[in-house]
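Protocol step 4 of 6: structure prediction from sequence.
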Amino acid sequence: MTSVKTPEGRRLWAPVLALALAAFIFVTTEVLPIGLLPAIAADLGETEAFTGLLVTVYAWAVALLSLPLTACTARFERRRLLLCLFGIFIAGHIVSALSTNFVALMLGRLCIANAHAVFWSIASPIVVRITPPEAKAKGLAVVIVGSSLATVLGVPLGTIVGQHFGWRAAFALIGAAAACVGLVLWRL
């Protein structure tokens, strides 16, 4: 198996680690509003229960759009598609961070959900394609760890940022992190 300690190993595993970071970011943004519901609701003049639709509608959008959007994008080259998804994801975070009402925030979240719906359909095949044959399971495990860490690290950190600097800052920070990861993926 190619070791991460060798130059060749670092070259092979760097994209896998970048995809794990992407998974971390995608899952963090999916559930981030849960920790920020009181702040978002108060700022937008909505009830917390109504503001919870930001999570529910997002989840439904991802579930319902995954298959049709994946089918529509099946002919796109995967690397280019991944970078396009990051662009859509970042744009959705900009809209979310700048939103002044619930409708604008929901539109930003739906934009993010569209990118999310396709990301998971291509992330695993990309990992399998770029890892050495004897390390495909390990590559997939690394990406899954990235998504798992989002719930135990990403959401609490995002909530802390939101509580100290405002919920918009948390969305802006995720958008900035996505831009950095997207740049790394582009370079690799």
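Step 5 (inspection) to follow. The mean pLDDT is 91.
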